[in-house]
Amino acid sequence: MVTGTGLCQSGTSILGCYGGTGEEPDDQTRDSVRINKQIEDELNKEKKKMRNRIKILLLGCGEAGKSTFIKQMRIIHSGKEEGGWTVEEREQYRREILMNVIQCIQILLEEMTGSLDTSLNNTAARLKELKPDQEKDQAKLWEYRDNIVAIWEEPAIQETFNRRNEFNLPDCCRYFLTNISRISGPTFLPESKDILQIRVMTTGVIEYSFDMDGKECIMIDVGGQRTERKKWIHCFEDVLLVMFLAAASEYDQVLEEDHTENRMEESLNLFRTILSYHWFKNSAIALFLNKKDLLKEKISTSQLEKYFPKFEEFKGYKTQDYDSAMSFIKHMFHQQKKDVEASRDYQDSNSDGYTRSWFVHETMATDTDNIKKVFGDVKVTVFTNTMKDIMY
To answer: Strands across the sheet with 241-247, in order?
Structure first.
C-alpha cells in the first residue's frame, strides 16, 4: 500500500493533501496554501462581480448612430444636468463640430453643379482651402459666418443638399450650417443637443460604464466600418444583450468605403452574420431602426422600391409612405433572423433549443426623450427576463 502520495480528493484543502502524516508543513507547502487561498478569493470576488455586471454590445455599420447612442446613455445615466460634460470635453466637441462644418461646406461646394451668386465666390474659394482639423482654420468660420449663411441658402447649394443620397454628406450638415452664427462664436461651448449631432468615425473599441438599477452596465461601442470590424472579436464573450443599430433612412445610399454597396444591404448582411455567431446564441437581440426622422423626411421624394424592388410585392406596400416603408424594412431584418435560425449550422449549435429574446424599436438617436423611453422598455422587457438565466 502506498501512502503519502499527495493526491487530493475533491473539496480537500491543499494543506490536507500532503501525505496525511500529521507532519508540520514546510515553508514551500505554506506558500502553496497561501497562493491557493489568494486564487480562490480572487475567483470568488470575480464571480460576485459578474453577478452584478451587465455587458451590452452595440453593433451596426458605420454611421448608424452607435456613438450618438453611447452619448445618450451618458446624458440619461450621469445624474447630472446636460450629461455632466467637463469643460475639456466640451472644448474637444467644439473642435469636432467646427471640423464637421468645414467638411460639410466643402462637400457641398465640391458636389454643386450650379453656380453661386458672384459675390460669394471669393468666400467659397477660401472655404475650399480650409483644413478641417486645423484650429486656425476653424477659427476663420466666425469671420466667414454671414457669407456661410448666404452660401447655405443659395439655390445651387440647396439643390445639391436635396440629392445628398448621391454622395456622402454627414447627417449633421443642416443642423450645423443653420446654426453657424452660434457655433462658430469664439466663446461657444456646445450643449448636449449640439454634441449629439457630431459625426466622427469611431475607431477601435470604446467602453462606457454606468449604474443601472444597482448593477454595473458596460456598453461597448465598436467601429462600424469594414476595416474596424476585425477589432470586435474580443468583445463577444459574456454579452447579455446585442443592440444592433441600422439606419432606416439609408436605403438609397452607398457605403463611404465602397461606393458599389448599398448601405442597407450591407446592414442586412452584417445583421445576418452577427445573428449566426455562436457567441450570441443565448444573448437577447434588440434591433434599433434608427434615423426614423430622416426616413420620414426622405420617403416622400425617394422611392424605396427603386432600390429594393421586392417592396412592391410586400403585403403592406404603399409607395412613398413612412409606415409602409418602415414595416418592409422590419420585415427584411426579421427575414434574416428567420433564415439564420432555420440553418443547419445554427440548429446544430443550439441543441438545447434556447429561444433568444428579440425586440425591434424605431429610434431617433439624437432625441434624448425617445432613447430614454426605448432604453427603458429594453430594460424592463429584456433584462428582467434574461437576468433569470444568468443568476448563479
So the answer is: 205-212, 215-222, 53-59, 241-247, 284-290, 358-362
- In three-state secondary structure terms, 43 is helix
51 neighbors 388 (Cβ within 8 angstroms): no
DSSP state of 350: T
Q: Is residue 54 classed as helix, strand or coil in its secondary structure?
A: strand
Residues belonging to the active site: 63, 68, 199, 221, 225
Q: For residue 54, what is its C-alpha cell?
A: 451587465
Q: Whose grid coordinates read 424599436?
A: 361
**Residue given cell 425617445 in the structure block:** 370
Strands 284-290 and 358-362: parallel
Which amino acid appears at position 212 of this protein?
M
Q: What angle do CA 49, 70, 134 make, to 5 degrees?
A: 125
Q: What pTM did the predictor assign?
A: 0.82
Please give the sequence-ordered ranges of beta strands (E in DSSP) within the chain, or none if there are none: 53-59, 205-212, 215-222, 241-247, 284-290, 358-362
**Where in 204-320 does DSSP place strands (E)?**
205-212, 215-222, 241-247, 284-290
- Greatest distance between any 2 Cα atoms in the chain: 106
- 243 in Cβ contact with 222 (< 8 Å): no
Q: What is the pLDDT of residues 288-333, one digit of tens each?
A: 999 999 999 999 999 999 999 999 999 999 999 999 999 999 999 9
Which of left, alpha, beta for 22 (phi over 0: left; psi -120 to 50: alpha)?
Answer: left
Higher pLDDT, 260 or 392: 260
* Structural contact between residues 102 and 132, judged by C-beta atoms closer than 8 angstroms: yes
